[in-house]
Design brief:
Elements (H helix, E strand, L loop, with lengths): L1 H4 L1 H11 L5 E5 L6 H10 L3 E4 L6 E5 L8 H4 L3 E3 L2 H10 L6 E5 L5 H9 L5 E6 L2 H14 L4 E5 L13 E7 L21 H19 L2 E10 L9 H10 L6
Parallel strand pairs: 5-6, 5-8, 6-7, 8-9
Antiparallel strand pairs: 1-3, 1-4, 2-3
Helix pairs in contact: 5-6, 8-9
Length: 249
């Protein structure tokens, strides 16, 4: 960071990463409007403000244990950071489409995609971790979503059954997570030497390359990470575009 941003900006980034993050929830508009959810929460003496960037988001303070909170159990909302909410809007899903969500667990983006599709169409939620796919299923059930199916599959390994089958593809690849240090403070003590970082970016490139094979001609693919590092973002995408001239940004 010192080499990339200079001392002053590096200090600002570190200070931002040390601030306590705001808790954001995503309104499940399949069941309730944002204004109605805001009213429900305020009756429980929870401080609520509208999100900054998306029409579903609410910033909340004083939310009790969600596993026992009625509005959560009824599927009226999902805890999801607003940056994560924006990703599904970038994919811009429509009702009736077939969408593949790769590295999908625990299902925040999967369920949001279904919400934007008005629970009409089909979503295939892939993840390499079978136990985490159970979280996708649980979230879908709680939120009243029935268009998503799960499949255990390593994102870097091609599932030939779905070649050129998807209208749109979403990839949220494994990454360093540097962009979410505020929410995962343990990342401060995680180190990446050059070899480990190279292995990670190689995996990210493989997943993107594999995922591109699922897309129909004229479809849309969104590649996302929780990192701010260009090697994991612009670097991966630039290399992919060089190797796949049939895709454009």
């Amino acid at each position: 960071w010192l080499k990339r941003f200079g001392f002053a900006d590096t200090v600002k980034i570190c200070q931002a990463n040390n601030r306590i993050p705001t808790l954001v929830i995503r309104t499940n508009t399949l069941k309730v409007s944002r204004s109605d959810l805001k009213g429900i929460l305020e009756k429980e003496n929870i401080s609520v403000k509208e999100g900054l960037f998306t029409e579903e988001a609410l910033q909340v303070k004083g939310l009790p244990n969600v596993t026992k909170f009625p509005a959560y159990l009824e599927g009226l909302f999902q805890i999801q950071d607003e940056a994560s909410i924006l990703v599904s809007h970038l994919l811009d899903p429509s009702p009736g489409e077939f969408i593949i969500d790769i590295c999908s667990a625990p299902g925040g983006k999967t369920t949001h995609l279904a919400q934007l599709m008005a629970n009409k169409g089909s979503i295939l939620a892939m993840d390499s971790d079978k136990s985490r796919l159970l979280m996708v299923k649980d979230n879908c059930q709680r939120l009243g979503i029935d268009i998503a199916k799960t499949r255990q599959n390593n994102g870097a390994i091609l599932a030939e059954k779905y070649l050129k089958a998807a209208d749109k593809v979403l990839i949220d690849v494994p990454c360093t997570g540097i962009g979410v240090i505020r929410r995962k403070p343990d990342l401060r003590w995680q180190t990446y030497d050059s070899k480990r970082f190279e292995q990670l970016t190689e995996l990210q490139g493989k997943i993107l390359d594999t995922a591109s094979n699922y897309l129909k001609i004229g479809g849309r693919l969104v590649y996302s990470t929780c990192s701010t590092e260009p090697e994991e973002n612009e670097g991966i995408v630039s290399k992919f575009l060089e190797e796949h001239p049939d895709f454009e940004l």
